[in-house]
């Protein structure tokens, strides 16, 4: 079997090499490995990983459960007649616990889950539908649930389901202000709910579906904002069981007049208008092309071949946005297997740190891993703009990056991620398949043993995939 094709498969479908992964892929065969990754439920999750995730007790909570749990803590504090500063600390401690569990859960899965393509796609889609979980306010309460309930279940499913799940999650509704979006003149158009808010409608068109060149107009943005009036979050005092998902449609803030959106008449009738608009967007040719371009950019090249984008967009439209099948088209394409694209992508800080974790194989200090991400300019859940972190070389490759990563490589090789146990160089080379350029191999061979691991982790070869 061609080792180069094995390396390429691992580089693009996973976050990096682990001990034994190369022989595993060789034994399974590349095609069988790819198909198993496209069907993650067919891959058993180790019990050790399952147990680690279970210890993160805020990780699986719904928005409603998170809100109620925080409120219980605050009410108990009030009964004890604690001062407002102490109550604020209790609120903050709970939010910090959510953040810690979210970060650790993401890193553990990205590092240890055998369902690697699923983890790659969680990262891809969170960036595509980005919310800044570190922004403050209620976003600190809901961003983890956003990943677990709106993103993760749909990463290889239907795009329309993913789009709908993000559109109705309180993290998105709060982040892009649609919870304030109100029809002027409606019964509840008052105070901060006094008029249209176009923020979410604009980003829904520009970033989530059609793309900036997707053929929509300012009139379409306004029409979509009107369609989505009343899409918001439950009132804090609401106790209804249906509020568990954190979404509420408030008809008293909705614009019930007919609209024209993307050339289609949308009859004013309530929440169904929003669902119809999402249907139109999910099935639009511009969406098929935009999503296909971004996927091809992530898995093939920063400037993906137009021929590949067209093939993927065609499959997107034929399958009603079945992400798994669009990716299968990508992975079976001649463009994906063109040797010119091998080792042609530059690792983001996230991919770099996760690939180090997987290569060294004994990570116990996840706080150091996340601290490294912050210092490299890519804090988990902390992208401040709605377009998410970029995955292209021009966004991350600069002299400062290389200096920082080279410096980090020294600390990483000395064991900052695993109880200060120095990395075993020979095991590291075996894990990576001795897949180094002649120049890197020469530098490693001529160096003293105590810096070889640092040179490997800081090498140009390891920075690419």
TrEMBL record:
Pfam families: DUF1800. It comes from the Bacteria. It comes from Lyngbya aestuarii BL J. This is DUF1800 domain-containing protein.
């Amino acid at each position: 079997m061609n080792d180069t094709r094995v390396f390429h498969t691992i580089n693009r479908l996973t976050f990096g090499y682990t001990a034994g992964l190369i022989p595993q892929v060789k034994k399974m065969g590349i095609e069988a490995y790819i198909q198993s990754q496209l069907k993650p439920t067919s891959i058993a999750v180790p019990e050790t990983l399952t147990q680690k995730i279970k210890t993160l007790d805020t990780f699986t909570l719904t928005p409603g459960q998170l809100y109620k749990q925080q409120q219980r803590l605050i009410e108990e504090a009030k009964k004890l007649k604690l001062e407002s500063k102490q109550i604020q600390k209790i609120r903050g401690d709970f939010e910090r616990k959510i953040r810690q569990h979210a970060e650790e859960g993401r890193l553990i899965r990205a590092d240890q889950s055998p369902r690697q393509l699923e983890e790659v796609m969680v990262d891809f889609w969170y960036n595509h539908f980005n919310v800044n979980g570190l922004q403050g306010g209620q976003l600190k309460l809901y961003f983890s649930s956003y990943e677990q309930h709106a993103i993760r279940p749909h990463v290889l499913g239907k795009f329309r389901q993913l789009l709908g799940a993000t559109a109705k999650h309180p993290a998105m509704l709060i982040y892009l202000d649609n919870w304030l979006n109100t029809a002027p003149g409606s019964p509840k158009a008052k105070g901060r709910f006094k008029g249209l808010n176009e923020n979410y409608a604009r980003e829904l068109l520009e970033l989530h579906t059609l793309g900036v060149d997707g053929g929509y107009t300012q009139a379409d943005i306004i029409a979509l904002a009107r369609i989505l009036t009343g899409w918001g979050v439950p009132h804090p005092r609401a106790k209804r069981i249906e509020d568990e998902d954190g979404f509420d449609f408030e008809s008293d803030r909705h614009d019930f007049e007919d609209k024209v959106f993307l050339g289609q008449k949308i009859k004013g009738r309530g929440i169904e208008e929003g669902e119809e608009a999402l249907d139109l967007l999910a099935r639009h040719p511009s969406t098929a092309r935009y999503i296909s371009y971004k996927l091809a950019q992530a898995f093939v090249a920063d400037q993906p071949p137009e021929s590949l984008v067209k093939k993927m967009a065609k499959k997107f439209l034929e399958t009603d946005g079945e992400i798994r099948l669009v990716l299968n088209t990508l992975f079976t394409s001649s463009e994906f297997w063109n040797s010119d694209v091998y080792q042609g992508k530059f690792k983001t800080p996230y991919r770099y740190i996760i690939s180090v974790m997987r290569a060294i194989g004994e990570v116990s200090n996840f706080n150091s891993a996340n601290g490294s991400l912050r210092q490299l300019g890519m804090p988990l859940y902390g992208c401040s703009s709605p377009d998410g972190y970029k995955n292209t070389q021009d966004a991350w490759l600069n002299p400062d990056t290389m200096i920082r990563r080279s410096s980090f490589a020294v600390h990483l090789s000395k064991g900052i991620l695993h109880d200060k146990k120095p990395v075993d160089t020979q095991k590291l080379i075996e894990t990576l398949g001795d897949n180094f350029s002649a120049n890197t191999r020469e530098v490693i061979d001529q160096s003293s043993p105590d810096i070889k691991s640092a040179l490997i982790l800081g090498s140009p070869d390891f920075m690419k995939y």
